Amino acid sequence: TEQKASGIICVNRSELVVMSCEIKGIKTHPSYGIIIRESVLMMKDSKVLHHLLGGLIMRIHEPNDSIVGLYDSVKISGCKFGGNKFYGMLIDGRGSRPVIEDNKVFGTHGMGIRLGIATRARIRGNEIRDNQKGVEVESAGPFVFMNRIHRNLFSGIHFFTYKHILCNGVVKANEIFENGQHGVYVEGNTQLRIEDNSEVRNNRQCGIKVGQGSRVICLRNNIYDNLKQGILLVETASGHIQSNRIDGNIKANIAFGGKSSEDTAIIGNEIFKSRCEGIFMIEANRAWVLRNEIHGNNDGLVLVGSIPHVKQNQIFQNERVGILLCATDQLKRRSNALIEENEVTGNGVVGIMIKNGGKPKIFNNTIVENPVNLAMDRMNRNIQYLEKKNIIQGEIQVTSNRCTIL
Q1: Which of 44, 71, 228, 244 is the most exposed place for a label (fewest CB within 10 A)?
Q2: pLDDT at position 235, please?
Q3: Which residues, listed in sequence order, are joined to residue 242 by a DSSP beta bridge?
Q4: Residue 70 CB neighbour total at 10 angstroms
């Protein structure tokens, strides 16, 4: 078999300092840049380039408190990891807190940075670009802060779990853009906080995708111009989505539904200019949609077989419908949503539309200045009751069959 070379190997409780070095591989011979095993690394202003087996491979598995304590002092700063295969950096240190800051990780034919189980790395101020994956986190708990993560072939950041071991962490104040799949992709038994990211944009799929069984808290992010949804919560996923600015995504700005959707709250966001829906729910349970501004979308709020509590929102100037409620006959589920204290004004066609026999509770809303303020395709409710319980100024349309206004 072909021998595998390494630029530097450090093992057996040693300490390694690498400063202003260039460790370069060659394309004709497989090699590792640096291998660290049960040891400590301080690395600064160095380059690790073109290694066919990985740039930096760092592992600690020995359950020894003294080694773990030393391992907390690992720091990699101001370095370049470029053109490596499989990994720019692979760090697997259980319970350790290495610092990875101000580096450039680029051109990796694999993962730019990969964190193994229980690693609590601080990834700060790096540029991570043009890799197959930007950052991959397996059942770890990193703090990912002030990085530029862009132009990676797949997702910018990917969190997932190993055998249901909890994966958590914080993604804060980053710029995540122009990745080939999702900006942030979360799946498995993962609980993640995503906050204050100035840009989650122009990713070729979702800005943030939350897979089965995961939960996210999204606060004060700018999520825009992604080619699918801004935020997508698949069935059994849930999230707390508050104070974000979500706009210009090609599909729904926010989409969710199914099991665990009752654990989702959408509060105080500005949701606008989607080419499809501002918020899209399908088979969603009693989720909260509270105090949002929903405007300039094709449709403002679309509820398909869903029963959320929609309260105190401003829903205005959407191109077609402010709120569309549609029952799902195939599953014999009515759209029995609770719609109260909302302002539904100035939408292009209809303020509130009820289709396929939905029976929502609608009261204390202001529904004005829409061409048709209220439209129903079946005579399923007392019109005088609706007019008494809401402020409705203008046309109400009711048909005995199906509404064809849209």
Answers
A1: 44
A2: 94
A3: 219, 267
A4: 17
For residue 242, give Cα distances in angstroms to 16, 221, 327: 45, 9, 27
Q: CA 88, CA 69: separation in Å to the nearest integer?
A: 25
- Whole-angstrom distance, CA of residue 162 vs CA of residue 139: 6
Tokens of 183: 């900006």
The 8-class DSSP code of residue 236 comes to T
Instruction: List, in sequence order, every residue forming a beta bridge with 157; answer none if it has no partner.
Output: 135, 184
- pLDDT digits over 59-75, tens only? 876 545 555 555 567 99
Neighbours of 259 (CB within 10 A): 14
Encode pLDDT of 265-279 as tens digits.
999 999 999 999 999
Q: Name which of 71, 56, 53, 52 is nearest 21 in CA terms.
A: 56
pLDDT tens, residue by residue, 154-189: 999 999 999 989 999 999 999 999 999 999 999 999
Tokens 């990994």 -> residue: 87
Residue with the two structure tokens 């069959």: 401
